[in-house]
């Protein structure tokens, strides 16, 4: 099974695209580019262990079990 991975900064995080659409991944990539200058996002990014992509949202899962939702529509 091939897993998708996103590289942001010096970290690579696995992604599961539950929407099964390429357009969802493109919108997610654009949202990540917009977040590049956001310091709060960069602090959170250090602890992200896994990302799920849905049609309109990305769910960032952290090692402690908490989640953070980002709208990508």
Determine the structural class based on helices, strands and strand pairing: alpha+beta
Form type: globular
Oligomer: single chain
* Straight-line N-to-C gap: 28 Å
Number of DSSP E strands: 5
Radius of gyration: 11 Å
Mean pLDDT across all amino acids: 91
Question: How do the strands line up in the largest sheet?
Answer: 1-2-3-4-5
Helical coverage, percent range: 25-40%
- Uncertain stretches of 5 or more adjacent residues: none
SSE sequence, one letter per element: EEHHEEE
Beta percentage is 35-45%
Q: With helices defined by DSSP (H or I, 4 residues minimum), what is the helix count?
A: 2
Describe this structure in words.
This is Transposase. With 73 residues, the protein is of the alpha+beta class. Helices cover 27% and strands 40% of the residues. It has helices spanning 22-34, 39-45, and strands at 4-8, 11-17, 48-53, 57-62, 67-71. It has a 5-stranded mixed β-sheet, covered by helices on one side. The longest helix has 13 residues, at 22-34. The mean pLDDT is 91.
